[in-house]
Amino acid sequence: MLPGNNVYDIKKLPDERGFFAEILREDWSDFTQGDKIVQANLSYSYPGMIRAWHRHLRGQVDYFIVLKGAMKICAYDDDPSSATNGKLDEIVASSERLQVVRIVGKNWHGTKTISSEPSLTVYATTRLYDYKNPDEERRNWNDPKIVDPKTKQSFDWNKPPHK
User: Fold this and answer.
1) C-alpha to C-alpha distances, 71 to 32, 33, 142, nearest whole angstrom
2) Quick check: 106 and 3 in contact, CB under 8 A?
3) pLDDT at 163
4) Cα separation of the two ends of the chain
5) CA–CA–CA angle 11, 39, 23 (5° rounding)
6) Which residues contact 20 (CB under 8 A, 6 or more apart)?
7) In the predicted model, is pLDDT for residue 160 greater than 80?
8) Quick one: which of 10, 51, 76, 98 could link to 108 by a disulfide (CB 3.0–4.6 Å)?
9) CB neighbours of 117 closer than 8 A, spacing ≥ 6?
10) How many angstroms separate the Cα of 45 from the Cα of each of 38, 63, 66, 67, 95?
11) How high is the pLDDT of residue 161?
């Protein structure tokens, strides 16, 4: 994976009422790398919806947890000075296997709901959203300059993950 990006399996503690799960803890320093979460958001996306590409250049880190449905989460490094320039992380997260996905904000990143039902995602950030001066740079979801390192062609959000 790109440096700093990571996936952590969430432990579900089931009982006769349902289940309980800790989704982020300050003492998970091996995973959070010292991040302090300052904002939590909820995102609902219809099947096939692509929300891409954007990045944060002021140090923000995002933590995604898919609570319903399934989602493809991707991150792309296009920094020419980086040892991982041109590398792309492609992660499938779903409610079937609770995980928290850590994405370093300097990488271009985005999501696509790949389930037949809408996805419901909680995501936390390490920086507050600044309405007057957003830390957000955007590209088109189908930007041909984002290249899939496996195919050497433009990244295709609609390509099935098994091909």
Assistant:
1) 21, 24, 17
2) no
3) 52
4) 20
5) 5
6) 12, 13
7) no
8) 76
9) 47, 68, 69
10) 23, 17, 11, 12, 14
11) 64
Question: Does 83 score more than 90 pLDDT?
Answer: yes
Q: What is the token pair recorded at 48?
A: 């096939």
Structure tokens at 85: 């320039």
Specify burial of residue 122 (Cβ count, 10 A radius: 0-12, 13-18, 19+): middle
Please determine, for residue 104, whether its predicted confidence score (pLDDT) is greater than 90.
yes
CA 149 to chain centre: 19
Residue type, 114: I
Say if residue 70's pLDDT is above 60: yes
Question: What 8-state DSSP symbol labels residue 142?
Answer: T
Give the model's confidence band at 17: pLDDT under 50 very low, under 70 low, under 90 confident, else very high.
Answer: confident
Nearest to residue 51, comparing CAs of 37, 66, 36? 66
Q: Which of 35, 26, 84 is nearest to 62 (CA)?
A: 35
Domains of the chain in sequence order: 6-154 (2.60.120.10)
Looking at residue 62, its amino acid is D
Tell me how far apart the alpha carbons of residues 14 and 35 are, in angstroms, rounded to a whole number: 28
